[in-house]
Amino acid sequence: MSLSDLRVRSLLGGAVLALISLVAVGCSSNDNNVAANNADNASTAAPSAPSTVPASTIVSTIDPTPLLKTALESLAGGYHFSSTYVVNGVASLTGEGDRVGDSSRFVLTQNGATVSYIVTPTATYAQPANGEWQLLDTPPAATDPITALDAPEAIGVLSDDGTSLRLRVTVSALTLGVGSSGTSDVEVVLKGGAITEVDYATTKDGNVASVATVVGPVADATPISPPI
CA-CA distance, 211 to 83, in Å (whole number)? Predict the structure, then answer.
């Protein structure tokens, strides 16, 4: 799968914690917009997959609901994110950037090729390395991991060591962007009351895809505006 397979349909126009809607796995290529190259998946070893231990097996005296709510509220001003995307056990793509206000800027990298993106509430722009900015003809996707986490259907504690709290948050698959119905599980790590990691996965057309995202303070707080 190349960047051209993932770019427009996979972009998240909202908080962009994950950058890529995993429902794009198995989609056919569309070369009408900016893409970096058509290289095959990288052979980099995949990171560990999220835990599959049922949340109900963990006993905790902590109520995770208000903790998650407070952590999500703290992201309203912005944050930095670094994501790794794994398809069928192979790390195929990385993404890194900042969410500032209601817009995002980030770079996707695959096999050494990069494409820069700016996503505003009304438009998505892309720029390949050494190329010009282009306005993509597909509007920003409506899926948003933060929105999904902000309206959980269930929350369970997977682990609690007194320093790091790992939650399993069951959310709408549609809002998350990995399906048209039903729910999906997202694992969220809280440290010091802040979200530091978000992991989730999906399967489509026999392909298994997952995304692991590290979250931290904004690296570049410069207001984001359309590049053209």
Answer: 7
Helix runs in the chain, H state only: 3-10, 64-74, 145-150, 173-176
Q: What pTM does this model have?
A: 0.76
Nearest-5° Cα angle at 91, 8 to 120: 25
pLDDT at position 91 over 80: yes
**E strand or H helix that includes residue 91:** strand 90-100
Phi-psi sector, 195: left (phi>0), alpha (psi -120 to 50), beta: beta
Share of residues in the chain with pLDDT > 90 (%): 32
pLDDT-derived band at 22, boundaries 50, 70, 90: very low
Residue 51 DSSP one-character state: P
Residue 80 pairs in a beta bridge with: 98, 216
Q: Which domains, from first to last, does the chain contain?
A: 3-39+50-216 (2.50.20)
Distances (CA, A) of 47 to 57, 85, 144, 199, 201: 24, 9, 23, 11, 13
